[in-house]
Amino acid sequence: MARVPFLLLIEDDDAVRTALEMGLTRQGHRVATAASGEDGLKLLREQRPDLIVLDVMLPGIDGFEVCRRIRRTDQLPIILLTARSDDIDVVVGLESGADDYVVKPVQGRVLDARIRAVMRRGERESNDAATFGSLVIDRAAMTVTKNGEDLQLTPTELRLLLELSRRPGQALSRQQLLRLVWEHDYLGDSRLVDACVQRLRAKVEDVPSSPTLIRTVRGVGYRLDPPQ
Amino acid sequence: MTDAPSFGARLRSRLAGLLPSLRLRLVVVFALVALTAAVSASGIAYWLNRDAVLTRAQNAALNDFRKAMEDNAGNLPRKVDCGQLREAAAKMARSSQNYQVLLVDETESGKRCAAASNLDDFALGDVPDRLRHAVEEKRPVTKQNKHPYHLYWQRITLDGDPYLVGGAKVIGEDPTPTGYLLKSLAPERDDLSSLGWSLGIATGLALIGAMLLAQAAATTVLRPVRRLGDAARRLGEGKLETRLRVSGTDELAELSRTFNDAAASLEQRVAELSAREASSRRFVADMSHELRTPMTAISAVTEVLEEEQDNLDPMIAPAVQLVVSETRRLNDLVENLMEVTRFDAGTARLVLDDVDVADQVTACIDARAWLDAVELDADRGIMARLDPRRLDVILANLIGNALKHGGSPVRVSVHTRERPDGGDGDELAIEVADQGPGIPEDVLPHVFDRFYKASASRPRSEGSGLGLSIALENAHIHGGEITAHNAPSGEGGAVFTLHLPRDARRVAEEWERENGEGTGEHPRHGGDRAQDEGEDR
After folding, report:
1. Chain B residue closest to A176 (CA)?
2. Burial (Cβ within 10 Å: 0-12, 13-18, ≥19) of residue B197
3. Which one of A85, A107, A216 has the shortest CB-CB distance to B536?
4. pLDDT, tens digit, for every residue of B163-213?
5. Is A26–B307 a contact, with Cβ atoms under 8 angstroms apart?
6. Which CATH code for domain A6-120?
7. B110/B167 same-domain check
8. How far is CA B355 from CA B211, B376, B424, B504, B526, in A?
9. Which end of chain A is more exposed for a tag (fewer CB within 10 A), N or C?
C-alpha cells in the first residue's frame, strides 16, 4: 500500500505508550494513542484507523472486552500486547477476535514486522474467483459470499481462506499456514491458526461444530475440501 | 531373669504368628476362658451330683435290706430247707426298694442252699468273690469291732448295666443264713447321663456365647482401630483435612483425639509452609511482571537510540552502546525469570504441533547464525508432536551453551529409538556434543541448577544463569529428560542428550489434568481440540 498505515495504540502506561509511539512513528507509521479502552473505542469511531495495537491489561474495560466490542462492528486487524505471555491470556485474546499477539517486553522491530504482515493480508493478488458449494470467494473484489450474502471477514480470516482455497484438497500444516498467512518464522504459535480456523468456520460453515469445508487433517493441519 | 522377657517375647511372636489377626486372638482367648470355666463348673457339679444320687440310693436300699434281713432271715429256724429260704427271699424282695434277694444257708441235710427271689436274675455267681469272702469272714469281736459280721457292698456291672451288690450274715449261732441283695442302678445312671448331657449342652452354649461376645468385643475395639488406620492412610496420601469422630472417653477415643491433634498441627504446618512458598513465588512472579512494563518502554526507546548511534557524539556513543547491550541482557533475564516462575507456578502449557525435527533444528541454528559452527547429523522426515517453541528454547540453550563453553564445531545429531522404560511410542534423542575440555566431575551434578556458577575462575557467562535449568524444565513438561556427561577422553568434550517422547499429547493431557484447577481454564479452546480429534472418525 502506498499510503502510510494509520495505527491506533491503546495502552494505559504512559512510558510504554510514549516509547511505542516514538518507535512506531520512526518505523514510518502514523500513530494515534488512547490511554483506556473507552477512549480507544471513541477514537476508533472518529478516526477510522487501519489497525489497532491493543494492550490487554487496561483500567476499566480490559483489552479482551475492547477486542470483542470492536469485532461486533468492525473487521479491522487487531494486534494484542500481552504483558503476561501466560497461555491463558493468549487463548482468550485469540478467541476475542485478535489477529495476532506480541508479548511484552516488545521489540519495536517485531511489532513493526507484525503490523506490516497484518496489513499485507488485505492486499489483493489475483483476479479470479472460486466456488466451494454455497461459498463464493471473489479474489478480485476480496469478498466472500455465502448463499449470495456478504460475509464479514477480518483480513486474517480472509487471507487464511484464500491460502486454503488456492490449494483445494491439499492439507496445509499449521506451521505452513503461519508462514503463509501470519508471515511468522518457524516458531509461530499454532494456536493462532486453530483460533482463526474456529472463527472462520463459525462464519463459513453451515454447522460450525461439524465442518464440511475446512477439515482438520489429523497430525498435519487443515485443508479446504473442493465441493463434492 | 534375662531369659524371662525373651521367652515372653518369643511366646508373643509365636502367638502372633499362629493367630495373625487380633480378632481371631480375642475369639480364641474368650473361647478358652469360657471352656475352662464351663468345663470345671460342670465337672464339679456332675461329680457332686453323682455322689449324692448314688449315696442316697445305696443307703436307702442297704438300710431296707438290713431291716428285711433282721425281720425275715433272723426269724428263720436253725435248720431250714430250701423252700423256706426261697419264701423268705421272695418276701424280702417285696420291698419298696425294688431289689433282688439271695439267701444262702445250710439245710437240714447239711448241704448249702442258695435261694434267690428270682432265679433268673440273681445267682450266687453274680456276687463277686471278694464281697462273698468279706461277708463270710468272721472277725474277732473287740472294743472297736462290736460284731463278728458286717454289711458289705460293692458296685458292679452286669451285662453293661450298673448294679449295687450288698451282703450280710445274720449274727447268731452258726450256721446262720447269709443274704445278698442286687439292686439295679440303671435309673440313677440314666438320671446322671441326662444331667451330663444338660451340662455338656450348657457348656457348648456358654462357649458359643463367649465366642459371640468375643466377636462383638473385637468389633467394638477393631472398628475404631480400622477407622484410625484408614484415616492415617488418607493422611499419608496428603489429605490433611482428615479427622476422626471422637466419641466416648476410653483409650481409643483418647487415641483418636491425639490423632486429630497431630493431623491438625500437620495441616497447619503444611499450610504455613505452602503459603510461605507460594508468597515467595508470587513475589518473584509479580516482580518480573512489574519489570516487564518499564522494560517494554526501555526496549522501545533503546532501539531508537541504537539507530541514532552513528549520529551521536563519540564520547556518548559508547555509553549508549552499553545501555543498549545491557538492556538486551536485562530483557533476557526478565524473560527467563518469567519462564521460570511459570514452571514453578505450574501455569506453563504445551502448545503441541506436528513438526519435522530436522527442520526445527536447522531453523533454530539458522535463526541464530550458528550454521558455520554446528555440524548437523539429522535425517529429514522425522516427525514429532511437540511444542516447537519449547524445543527451540531447549536447543538454543544447549547449543549456545556448547558454543560458549566447548567451542566449535558443535555436533548435533538426531535419532529415534524405542523408549527404554518400555512406554508406548518412540523416543526422540537429540545429542549436542562440543569439542571443549568437558565439564569437571564435581560440577556435572549441578549444571542444571539455577544461577549455578561453576567456579570463580570460570569466565563470567553472558547468559542469565537460568538457561540450562529452563531447558530441563522444558524437557520435563514434555515428559522428557536432559542428561549431561563427558565424552571419553580424546573424543570430545561435554555431551548433552535431550530425550523427548515423539508424541507428547498424552503427557500434555496429564499435565492439563494435574494443573487444570486454579490456573484458569479455557473450555472453548479445549472443546475445539476435542472436536478436531472427533471429526475425522
Report:
1. B355
2. exposed
3. A216
4. 888 888 887 766 678 888 888 888 888 989 999 999 999 999 988 998 898
5. yes
6. 3.40.50.2300
7. yes
8. 72, 17, 20, 12, 21
9. C
Q: Could you tell me if B373 and B325 lie in one domain?
A: no
Domain count across chain B: 4
- CA A101-A105-A106 angle, to 5 degrees, is 55
> Is A133 an 8 Å CB contact of chain B?
no
Tell me which chain B residue has its CA closest to the CA of residue A16. B297
Integer CA distances (angstroms), B190 to B121, B184, B203, B290, in order = 21, 11, 20, 105
Q: Residue B519's pLDDT is what?
A: 39
**Range 285-344 of B in CB contact (< 8 A) with A:** 289, 292-301, 303-304, 307, 331, 334-335, 338, 342
Instruction: Compute the distance between CA of residue B68 and CA of residue B180 in angstroms, rounded to an integer.
Output: 11
A218 Cβ under 8 Å from any chain B Cβ: yes
CATH code for position B452: 3.30.565.10
Q: Is residue B388 part of a domain?
A: yes
Q: What residue in A sits closest to B354 (Cα-Cα)? A: A219
Indicate whether A112 pLDDT > 50. yes
Q: What's residue A42's pLDDT?
A: 93
Q: Does the distance separating the beta carbons of A13 and B522 come in below 8 Å?
A: no
In a domain, B533, yes or no: no
Same domain, B414 and B506: yes
Nearest CA in chain B to A22: B301
User: Does any domain span residue B3?
Assistant: no
- The radius of gyration of chain B from alpha carbons, rounded to an integer in Å, stands at 55
Q: Compute and round to an integer the Cα radius of gyration of chain A.
A: 17
- CATH 1.10.10.10, domain A129-224, yes or no: yes
Cβ separation B295–A104 shorter than 8 A = yes
- Together in a domain, B180 and B200: no
Interface of A with B in 156-175 (CB under 8 A): 173-175
The closest of A115, A65, A56, A54 to A88, measured between CA atoms, is A56
Position B8: which residue type? G
Please give the mean pLDDT across all residues of chain B: 81
Residue-wise pLDDT tens digits, B410-433: 899 998 887 766 666 788 999 999
Mean pLDDT across the stretch A191-197?
A: 89
What are the tens digits of pLDDT across the range A158-168?
A: 889 988 888 88
Sort out which chain B residues have CB atoms less than 8 A from A179's CB and list them: none
- Distance between CA atoms of residues B197 and B205, nearest Å: 12
A202 touches chain B (CB under 8 A): no
Please report which residue ranges of B308-350 form alpha helices under DSSP H.
317-345
Chain B residues whose beta carbon lies within 8 Å of the beta carbon of residue A186: 359-360, 363-364, 367, 388, 392
Confidence of residue B347 (pLDDT cuts 50, 70, 90): confident
pTM of the model: 0.58
Higher pLDDT, B64 or B514: B64
Tens-digit pLDDT profile for residues B436-472 = 888 888 888 888 888 776 554 445 455 667 888 999 9
> Which residues form the domain of B58?
16-71+190-223
Tell me if chain A has a CB within 8 Å of the CB of B351.
yes
Residue B335 Rama label (left phi>0; alpha psi -120 to 50; beta): alpha
B62 in the same domain as B155 = no
Query: Domains of chain A: which residue ranges?
Result: 6-120, 129-224
CA-CA distance, A124 to B7, in Å (whole number)?
A: 100
Is the complex ipTM higher than 0.85? no
Answer yes or no: do A215 and B351 touch at CB < 8 A. Answer: no
Nearest C-alpha of chain B: how many angstroms from A57? 11
